[in-house]
Every structure is written in C-alpha cells, then in structure tokens.
Amino acid sequence: MLAALLVLLWACEPSRTYREGVMAEHYRMMSNADLLRYQARLGDEIAKVEQGGPVPGGADRAVYLEDLRDRQRDVESQFQGNIRRQRYEQYRKRMDLMYGY
After folding, report:
1. Is 29 left (phi over 0), alpha (psi -120 to 50) or beta?
2. pLDDT tens-digit profile of 52-71?
3. Under a CB-based contact definition with an 8 Å cutoff, are residues 65 and 50 in contact?
4. How far apart, in whole angstroms, are the C-alpha atoms of residue 90 and residue 29?
5. Quick one: which of 34, 51, 57, 59 is 20 to 30 A from 91 by CA?
6. Nearest to 18 by CA among 10, 26, 8
7. Number of Cβ atoms within 10 Å of the Cβ of 68
8. Which residues, 6+ apart, have CB-to-CB distance to 54 below 8 Å?
9. Does residue 11 register a pLDDT over 60?
C-alpha cells in the first residue's frame, strides 16, 4: 500500500513555476488580443529553444519545451472559451431584448 502511495505521489508531480520569461506571465485574465500576442510569443520561444536557445535557470530543455507547448494549448483553450462566453453573452442580450428574459 505504501508503494502504491509513493507511485501516486510521484506521478502527481507538482507544477513548475517560472519566475522569468514568457512562462512567468499570467494569461487567464488577458483579453483576446493579448492572448493572441502571448500565443505568438510562446511560438517564438518554442522555436528559439528548439534551435538551442537558452532556457530558464535550473530547467531541463525537454521539460521546458513541453511546458511551453502545454501553455500554448492552455492559451488556445482560454481564447476559445472567451469567444464562447462572448457569444453566449450576446445571445442572452438578444433574448432579453426580444423576449424580456
């Protein structure tokens, strides 16, 4: 049972925090325009690191690249979620105007 607990704790690796570069930015409250710019910066950072550019201190290159790709997917999901919320808000406003909801 102890071995299973250790495997579970090892598999649930804590998320890494970066104090510098594009990974240090908080994207969850960005506007859509800011998200697009941030996504482009992430793409530039991925290309730079793939070509042998520097990584933040103490980070493994492969792990940092995977974190960048994960962040890029998260930013895309955030962007799509913002669009869905905006469309839903517009729909609610139209329904309110039409039917008085």
Report:
1. alpha
2. 999 988 889 999 999 999 99
3. yes
4. 20
5. 34
6. 26
7. 22
8. none
9. no
**Domain layout of the chain by residue ranges:** 20-99
**Cα–Cα distance for residue pair 48/43, rounded to 1 Å:** 9
Q: How many residues does the chain have?
A: 101
Alpha-carbon dihedral sign for residues 7, 57, 16, 33: negative
Checking if the pLDDT of 101 tops 70, the result is no
Q: Is the dihedral of CA 47, 48, 50, 51 positive or negative?
A: positive
The answer to whether the CB of 11 falls within 8 A of the CB of 3 is no
